[in-house]
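step=encode ok
step=design start
structure_in=
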């Protein structure tokens, strides 16, 4: 290849052989008028009319350039003021020798919502969602569904959004986090609004809302659990709770199974299959005898098969229990009420003793410490004594185990009690906290309570 000489390289020329002259440098006009920018000519930025527009006799229009907000330090940001709650964009926490950043409050507030809504939505996506998660199961993994798909449906369906916000408010107050600025009265308002808008959506029966209705029917079961605790507690609330759980099945029937899978939230309503024969073999003999002893002429005789069916579903809990407290056992506990046949629920609402005995023995399983599932807490403590006091000494033997479960605070000890096996032990499966991810949920809760700088919220 022929080398270019320094002379030829230093003598630039055009294709026509004319000498090349570089453009004279000039200051760019960043605030020029619209006409000059369109013609790509330099504007002298004269006000109110620039010189080029004066020469051309055109109307001179300047583009208004918004000024940037001055930078402020973190300490002077309104987000950190005591009356607004903890609203920094992120907070760093030390976890296991590492620094983990937990995104705290969203800075964008969509139209139709206010800051408290977004605060509650943030808490749902970082902590409350885990109340309905069973960890990572081969058959069911719902974390992404709960944090992403459900929230997407919530922005399009206010009744689902109201449920999420009410559930988060309830969770915050359950944990006693005062600096989130959520009072008991606000919690009650969100909860009432959730139920009101849900009832209206069910009555409207708009097919486009079915996915959101399905998600709401599940979350409402947690939202309604306030009736088992504190001043809200009402005896035999478990009977109304049964109807809510069966409502999930009613929504599925309306939606149809194939349509449920197309919604992207089918994992929420997954129930592990039950081996009815194997489950029946695991049932305590005294419960089987309770049903087998029903004679013709007994008011419960027409319900014998329904009682047996309910007992077999209860047996699936005992069958799974042999492997220790696991994610699948927790899922079986949560979904148990959805399996119960309608005639059994009717018998329970009539407070028939055998139906209540079966419910009391189920409630003993809700005593397990299930990590993030805070809304199950207190249900057994409330309802088992109510059933015991109603039925009296005649049924005391069949209620011995549920009553004894109230005195147990350890998962291992509860398994030994339920299996009637004092030597049972499997430490590797006893950590209930493995059901959820502590790295995100735990740090989010710690971030929320890191600094309690707000005044006391209104007491309910």
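sequence_out=
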């Amino acid at each position: 290849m022929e080398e270019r000489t320094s002379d030829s390289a230093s003598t630039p020329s055009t294709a026509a052989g004319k000498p090349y002259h570089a453009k004279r440098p000039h200051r760019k006009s960043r605030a020029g008028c619209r006409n000059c920018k369109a013609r790509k000519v330099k504007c002298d930025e004269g006000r109110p009319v620039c010189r080029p527009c004066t020469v051309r006799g055109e109307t001179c229009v300047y583009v208004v350039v918004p000024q940037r907000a001055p930078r402020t330090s973190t300490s002077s940001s309104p987000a950190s003021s005591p009356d607004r709650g903890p609203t920094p964009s992120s907070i760093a926490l030390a976890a296991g020798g590492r620094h983990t950043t937990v995104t705290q409050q969203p800075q964008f507030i969509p139209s139709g919502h206010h800051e408290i809504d977004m605060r509650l939505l943030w808490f749902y996506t970082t902590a409350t969602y885990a109340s309905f998660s069973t960890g990572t199961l081969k058959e069911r993994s719902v974390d992404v569904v709960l944090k992403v798909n459900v929230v997407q449906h919530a922005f399009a369906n206010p009744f689902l959004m109201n449920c999420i916000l009410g559930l988060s408010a309830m969770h915050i107050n359950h944990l006693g986090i005062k600096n989130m600025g959520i009072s008991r009265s606000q919690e009650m308002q969100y909860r009432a609004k959730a139920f009101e808008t849900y009832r209206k959506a069910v009555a409207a029966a708009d097919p486009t809302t079915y996915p959101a209705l399905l998600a709401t029917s599940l979350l409402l079961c947690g939202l309604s659990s306030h009736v088992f605790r504190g001043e809200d507690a009402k005896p035999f609330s478990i009977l109304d709770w049964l109807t809510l759980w069966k409502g999930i099945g009613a929504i599925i029937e309306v939606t149809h199974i194939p349509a449920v899978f197309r919604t992207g939230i089918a994992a929420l309503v997954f129930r592990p299959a039950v081996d009815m024969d194997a489950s029946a073999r695991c049932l305590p003999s005294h419960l089987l005898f309770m049903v087998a002893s029903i004679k013709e002429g007994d008011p419960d005789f027409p319900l014998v098969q329904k009682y047996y069916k309910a007992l077999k579903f209860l047996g699936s809990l005992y069958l799974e229990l042999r492997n220790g407290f696991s994610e699948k056992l927790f899922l079986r506990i949560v979904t148990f009420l959805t399996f119960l046949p309608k005639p059994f629920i009717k018998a329970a609402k009539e407070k028939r003793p055998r139906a209540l005995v079966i419910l009391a023995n189920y409630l003993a399983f809700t005593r397990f410490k299930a990590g993030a599932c805070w809304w199950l807490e207190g249900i057994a403590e409330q309802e088992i004594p109510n059933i015991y006091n109603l039925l009296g000494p005649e049924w005391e033997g069949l209620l011995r185990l549920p009553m004894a479960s109230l005195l147990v605070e350890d998962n291992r000890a509860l398994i030994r009690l339920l299996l009637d096996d004092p030597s049972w032990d499997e430490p590797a499966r006893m950590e209930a906290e493995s059901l959820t991810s502590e790295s995100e949920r735990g740090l989010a809760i710690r971030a929320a309570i890191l600094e309690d700088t707000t005044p006391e919220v209104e007491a309910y």
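step=design ok
step=annotate ok -> The mean pLDDT is 78.
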